[in-house]
Specification:
heterodimer; A: 787 residues; Barwin-like endoglucanases; 6-stranded mixed barrel; 6-stranded mixed β-barrel; 22 helices; B: 243 residues; Rossmann fold; 4-stranded antiparallel sheet; 10 strands; 27% helix; 28% strand; binds adenosine-5'-triphosphate; binds magnesium ion; nucleotide-binding (chain B)
Chain lengths: 787, 243
């Protein structure tokens, strides 16, 4: 080995603690990158492959009822590649011993295998056979969650008739990657399943011989989706079409999309912050190392080594650290990526979901890590290259200290000589001190910004469930019902309060933008629902005009006072214009609201209800649920408590898993930054500290000089960390909001406290480590050296 | 010495018996001190002379409580230094020893006066820092930082720092090593003054035979042992020395 390389190896070994700390920080950055990019990439690749393989349709439409012959007319629309018509039907399932409502969405499938679009991927078994009316395929997650296998039978209430279904296959389809029951916000695979039944069998079961109520089509390459949708709508209008829509409005796909958006937002924001911090660290450590090696550098240059050789020598130090970081970070990223992917695989219904290790991700991660290290090294390396041998070999001029402002403050406070040492050192190197403060502040900010996601999710849950929903049950009807149905529900013993609620599907338009959604309304005297805005205030429904959630208003780029065109979907396709009178900052969903009167004017009928909210006596729950199951008008029942639990579970498993990884990384960075800063301080001051020991200062007194400075810097870093954390949190929340959630900024003092405690503990632990070094300080050796 | 029990001699500052120091580095070991017996009377001005590597600094560091001998016993007056733990050794240094090194070892972030205060802050019966600086002729440079002083001036601040606590012993390892003749003489003068006015025991390590003439005794070092003791009946004033 060449002598210079030997020096490199020794330097690495001598500074192994610091090198490792930097490597860890850099590894954290690499890991976040590998993790988020890897998971995102895997999900996108899986989705695309799955969609292509199983012919996920491009355009979808639902309608009341149309003869099957209409499919051919749709297929003839220019630009349509293939069209298929099917029946979908909600059914209630009866599992012995389970009183909670369990529902299925049954889809028809061609029993002669002629279905192409949204093809079922069978895990086990076969597709429904002709002449076997009870054959069904069940989606895998539902089967797993409910312990169903091939040959299991399920008692179902379909279209008011009881029927026993036999499971012949277990599988999944691309239009139900995310399977959401009506009225639900997150999938609940125990209470809601997707079933597929032979076409003839489902036609018979639902009295829809040779009829359909849903359409899927694929488009030719280059065809205009908007054009096709217009033509489809005009054909379906007489049949109660509720408006065709593309993949972007397809429930399952839209949810998947919003998840992917969140992931990629994380990819864009979190790894860069981590990389920035580690760049800083390399900069600090290497710069300092080169300063202390001035004389050596001068000597080596005097021997005839070129500036480039020296520069390369120090750059290699940074690269060695980066290399270690890449290995550690990639391993951690892969491990966590696999864990995340497993979670997604459970949550989403994909036939395959593999964590893909694509070489470009690693190359990019490696390049970023090396880039960060090299960038950090640049300053130090350049100064090493620029050093003139003659200049370098004479010791650096002793730093000139002067009494500054801080100093005067110090005198006011009556500092001892040791106190002066602390304050002057900080004031003498404002740049270095500022960088340390910034580094510690950044790591604390990062920790806080990731921590507050937990608060934000809790606040979201609280606002959505605790503040805005007070009903125990939501009962959805198969179709809009009038007061009689409501009255019937109120008669059930144990039902304490009944409130009608109405939701009508509409298309909102403003200028060139449009959005499919539904307008919700409620009893003006409602006790069971409330709309809560961002500040936690309850917002009343407007007497006239529309109220949109911020999400929806943003999508339409609408502001208050804008005239929104409202087209009723389904039934009469009437149009009217409503003024946007209010925008409400809601945490969940992109929703539209109107008062009952407005809704009646839009729908042009008196307000029937399509759902009711019930408050019940908890003692009577089982009885009420059983009664509701037997009512043919009831499409589904959602229990608020169960939904809350499910929602919490999803947030815990999905968001919080990712966040906890990030929290761990941020904590590692905080430790790395504080440790490195303390070590650098120690090395810079070893000579002075040894001198103090020689003069008769005790170990504990000497340690105070060092720890005092660390403490001072950390204390300065805490408020900065809070401010940086606040800013990063705002940024992350903004980037994290999707169509589904809008996280409120709801950081608790505990999160600030937690971040501060982690930083302080890191500081304390490193202080102890460094204090141990003070104990071991070799006075004699230090005094031999010239400084 | 010579077998006599010196532990009872009240007039001695230091007495050492069979001091050995072995540096173990990996496979090899260096015997820096090979059984040194010594007695340094109170108030003596002693010079250690000897070739490089002969163990002078090692001995000085042990005497000053910076380091410990591998074997042997060392007393300061009636305290056995070799029996003290780290903390007690530090207290001993704090109370009794003033150090001066070749490189001045001033704290760059403290002014001349503050560097002195560093010691007076923790001493029992110190001088005023200004008085100590007065003693070395730097009263007018109190508020200067080390970077604003010449090498000789820095060394005089170091001397002031060493004498400000009125130490029993001043230990100087090549105090003039980095200075030219006339600056070096000024430093030696301040040492001499401390010795004369405070009755301090002074031990000076030097390569410079010329300096040795100011001592009462000269210990000649060779290979970790005292090769020869020379007594100087007529110490010369530093003013008359030059090199
Ligand atoms: N830390 C150490 N590890 C190993 N050997 C050491 C150590 N310190 C000193 N030595 C060795 O001990 C011997 C005595 O060293 P010492 O510093 O006492 O010499 P010195 O007489 O002061 O020399 P100089 O006049 O050059 O300063 C030398 O051979 C030296 O190499
Ligand atoms: Mg020496």
């Amino acid at each position: 080995m060449k002598a210079l390389d030997l020096k490199l190896a020794r330097d690495l070994w001598r500074m192994r603690g610091q090198a490792l700390a930097i490597a860890l920080v850099l590894a954290a950055a690499t890991a976040t990158f590998v993790l988020s990019v890897g998971v995102h990439g895997s999900l996108v690749a899986t989705r695309d492959a799955y969609y292509a393989r199983s012919h996920f349709a491009d355009v979808f439409a639902t309608l009341k009822r149309a003869p099957r012959s209409i499919v051919a007319r749709i297929a003839d629309i220019p630009g349509v590649q293939r069209a298929e018509g099917n029946i979908i039907q909600y059914a209630t399932l009866d599992f012995p011993g389970r009183e909670e409502p369990i529902r299925a969405l049954i889809n028809s499938v061609d029993e002669f295998g002629r279905s192409r679009l949204n093809a079922i991927t069978l895990r086990k078994g076969i597709l429904p056979r002709p002449e076997h009316a009870s054959d069904v395929v069940v989606d895998e997650n539902f089967a797993k969650a409910n312990g169903l296998g091939l040959g299991s039978t399920v008692a179902a209430q379909i279209y008011g008739r009881r029927q026993t279904l036999v499971i012949v296959g277990i599988g999944m389809a691309p239009n139900y990657v995310y399977a959401l029951a009506p009225g639900d916000l997150v999938p609940d695979e125990r209470r809601f399943g997707i079933f597929w039944m032979g076409r003839k069998a489902l036609e018979a079961a639902t009295d829809r011989r040779e009829a359909i109520n849903t359409l899927s089509l694929t488009l030719d390459r280059g065809a205009s989706q908007a054009e096709v949708i217009r033509k489809v709508d005009s054909i379906l209008a007489p049949y109660g079409g509720t408006g065709a829509y593309g993949r972007e409005d397809h429930l399952s796909n839209a949810f998947l999309d919003s998840e992917l958006k969140q992931l990629s937002a994380m990819t864009r924001i979190i790894p860069p912050i981590f990389l920035l911090v580690s760049t800083f660290l390399v900069y600090i450590v290497l710069g300092r190392m080169i300063r202390t090696e001035r004389e050596q550098i001068g000597l080596i240059k005097a021997f005839g080594y070129s500036g480039w050789a020296i520069g390369w020598h120090y750059l290699k130090f940074a690269l060695a650290v980066a290399l270690l970081a890449i290995v550690l970070g990639s391993l951690a990223g892969i491990w966590m990526g696999q864990a995340m992917t497993r979670l997604y695989a459970e949550y989403y219904r994909f036939p395959f979901l593999t964590y893909r290790l694509s070489p470009p991700v690693f190359l990019a991660a490696g390049a970023l890590a090396i880039g960060a290290a090299a960038l950090g090294a640049l300053g130090g390396v350049r100064s090493a290259m620029a050093l003139q041998p003659a200049v370098a070999m004479s010791p650096p001029p002793p730093p000139v200290y002067r009494a500054g402002t801080v100093e005067r403050l110090g005198q006011l406070a009556g500092f001892s000589a040791l106190g002066h040492m602390i304050v002057r050192h900080v004031a003498r190197w404002p740049g270095r001190s500022a960088i340390t403060v910034l580094g510690v502040g950044l790591s604390m900010g990062l920790l806080f910004a990731t921590m507050q996601f937990v608060d934000a999710s809790k606040a979201m849950l609280d606002q959505f469930f605790a503040r805005s929903q007070h009903q125990d049950l939501t009962v959805t009807f198969t179709e809009a019902r009038n007061e009689h149905a409501i009255h019937a529900l109120a008669q059930i013993p144990g039902v304490l309060r009944v409130e009608a609620s109405r939701t009508i599907p509409v298309m909102l338009r403003l200028g060139a933008r449009s959005k499919r959604t539904a307008i919700e309304s409620a009893d003006p005297a409602s006790q069971l629902t409330a709309r809560i805005d961002g500040t936690g205030q309850e917002v009343a429904l407007p007497p006239a005009g529309l109220m949109l959630s911020r999400q929806l208003a943003d999508q339409l780029r609408a502001k208050i006072g804008d005239p929104i065109e409202v087209e009723l979907l389904g039934g009469r396709r009437t149009r009217s214009v409503q003024q946007l009178v209010r925008i409400v900052d809601e945490v969940v969903g992109a929703r539209a609201y109107a008062g009952q009167g407005t809704l009646e004017r839009i729908a042009r009928d008196a307000a029937p209800a399509d759902a009711v909210l019930l408050r019940i006596d908890p003692q009577a729950r089982t009885r009420i649920l059983t009664r509701l199951k037997d009512m043919p008008v009831v499409l589904g029942v959602t229990e608020r408590q169960a939904a809350l639990e499910k929602f919490t579970e999803v947030i815990d498993s999905n968001i919080l898993t990712m966040i906890s990884f990030y929290i761990a990384f941020a904590a590692a960075i905080a430790v790395g930054v504080v440790y490195n800063s303390a070590r650098i301080l120690f090395s810079e001051r070893a000579h002075e500290l040894a001198t103090l020991r020689v003069l008769g200062y005790l170990n504990s007194e000497v340690a105070i000089v060092l720890l005092g400075e660390i403490a001072l810097l950390v204390v300065l870093a805490l408020p900065l960390g809070c401010m940086l954390g606040y800013a990063m949190a705002q940024l992350m929340i903004a980037m994290f909001s999707s169509d589904l959630f809008r996280l409120p900024y709801a950081a608790t003092r505990a999160s600030y406290g937690f971040a501060a405690v982690v930083v302080l503990s890191a500081a304390l632990a490193t202080a102890l480590l460094v204090a141990r070094r003070v104990m071991k300080l070799d006075m004699v050796r230090v005094l031999k050296a010239r400084e | 010495m010579n077998g006599k029990d010196v532990a009872l001699d009240e007039s001695l500052a230091f007495r050492g018996e069979g001091l050995e120091k072995v540096y173990q580095t990996g496979e090899t070991s260096v015997r820096a001190l090979r059984g040194v017996d010594l007695a340094i009377p109170l108030g003596e001005m002693l010079v250690l002379l000897g070739p490089s590597g002969s163990g002078k600094s090692t001995l000085l560091n042990i005497i000053g409580g910076l380091d410990r001998p591998t074997s042997g016993r060392l007393f300061y007056r009636d305290t056995e230094l070799t029996a003290l733990d780290d903390r007690e050794l530090t207290r001993f240094r704090r109370a009794q020893i003033g150090f001066i090194f070749q490189f001045y070892n001033l704290i760059p972030s403290l002014t001349a006066e503050e560097n002195v205060r560093l010691v007076t802050d923790i001493a029992n019966n110190p001088m005023e820092p200004r008085d100590a600086l007065e003693l070395v002729g730097l009263a007018d440079r109190c508020d200067h930082y080390p970077a604003q002083l010449s090498g000789g001036e820095q060394q005089r601040v170091a001397v002031a720092r060493a004498i400000a606590k009125r130490p029993g012993v001043l230990l100087c390892d090549e105090p003039t090593g980095a200075l030219d003749s006339s600056t070096g003489v000024r430093v030696l003068e301040t040492l001499e003054r401390a010795h004369a006015e405070l009755g301090t025991t002074v031990v000076i390590i030097t390569h410079n035979v010329g300096i040795a003439v100011m001592a009462h005794r000269i210990l000649h070092f060779r290979d970790g042992q005292i090769a020869r003791v020379e007594t100087n009946e007529h110490p010369v004033e530093p003013r008359q020395i030059s090199w």
